[in-house]
Amino acid sequence: MRLLCAALLAVAVAGGCAPAARRGIAFSTWGSIDEIETLKPLLAEFERANPDVPVELIHIPDEYPHKVRLMAAARRMPDVLFLENQTLPGFARRGVLRDLAPFMADGSIKRAEFYPQTLAALTYKSTLYAIPRDLSNLAVFYNKALFDQAHVAYPEAEWTYERMVEKARSLTRGDQFGIGFAPYPIYWLPYLWSDGADVADPGLTRCTLLDPPALAALHRYLDLRKKYHCAPTEAQVGNARMSQLFAQGKLAMMVGGRWVVPGFRKKLAFDWDVAPFPRGKAGSIVDADASGWAIAESCREPEKAWRLIKFLAGQHACEAFTRSGLIVPARPDVASSKVFLDGKPAHSRVFLDAIPASRPTLTPPSYDEIVYELIDGLPAAWNGEQPLEETLKPIVKRIDALLQEDHS
Q: The whole model's pTM is what?
C-alpha cells in the first residue's frame, strides 16, 4: 500500500505529467491524520486477504472535490473514491461514476444493511453511485458544568426553539454565550427545515430564501444575535470556531456533528452531552447526509474495486471507523451496538433518534457554487451591516441562475 502526497499529485495534474502506470486499485479519500490511521490498518488487512488487489491510497486532506475534479479532467481518476452526497451529483452528472446496482446484484451488499436515508443521499436521478459509510447529522452539544453553575435545567427531549432561547439567555454572561452562531449553511439549515422551509423548492428550480417561511426562519436564527444577544457576534469572537469556544468553556451550547466527538473526548475537562435539535413549526429536522465509496467509470478492474468497497462497507470495517467516535455509522447493526453507544456523549442515541425525521440536503450539481454564494453573501446580514432581505435579493438571483443552468 502506498501513500501519495496530495501536493505532489496536484502538481502532476496541473503540470500535465503522466504518473506511472497503476498497479492494483487507486483509492482517494480526505480525512484527518487520526482518520487515516484508522484506515491504513484496514487497507493492510484487506490486502492480506486479497493479495491480487494492492491498494494505492491517495490522501487529499484539503480541497478534496476540487482536486478530484482536476484528476478527472486529466483522466487520472482514482478507481475508488470516497465522496459525500453534497458533491456526488456534480460527478454523477459528468458521467465519471459507475452505477452500483449491477454490482449489488451479487447479493454481497444489501440495501437493508443501511439506513434508507444514507442510500437516498447517495442516489442521483434514481441511480445509486456510492455505498454509505456514515450518516452525518446534527445535535446540540451542551456544557453540563455551565448549566449546573447557572442552575439551568438540561435540554429536554422535546424542547422547542423558544425553550432553547430561554436557556441560552440565562447562560449568557460576560464573555460567555448561551448558544453558538455559525455562518455556514450546514449549521443554520435545520432552523429552516424545522420550520418547514428550505433553500430551494423540491424540484430545484428556484431559490426560496425570500419566501415568507424561509425568511421568517432566517430571522429567527439571526435573532439569536440581534434580538436576544445570546449568540456571539464576529466582533466578539473573531474567527474562532464554535467548537473552540465550546472547548474553552465560553459557549454553553453549540450545534455540531459527530465529527467533533473524538476531539472532545480527548480535550474537554468538563462534563458534556448532546440533545436533539429544538423543535420548530415542522418538528425537529436535521440533515441525513452521507459519505460513501464510489467506483469511477474509468476503473479498468471494477470487480477488484467492488471487492474493496464490500470490505470497507462491512460490519467489521464500519466498527473500526465508529470506535473513535468520529461517525454515525450508516449500518444500523453498528449504530445500535456498544461500539457507537458507549462512552461520551452519554446520550449518543440522540443521533439515531433524529434519523426518522431527518432528510438529505438538497444537492443540485451546482451545490458547491450555491454554498459559496451563501457563505460569501450573507455576512452583511449576519453582522448587522445590512437588512436580511436586502442581502438576500442578489444572492437569490444568483442561485436562481445556477439552478436554471443545472436544468439546462
A: 0.92
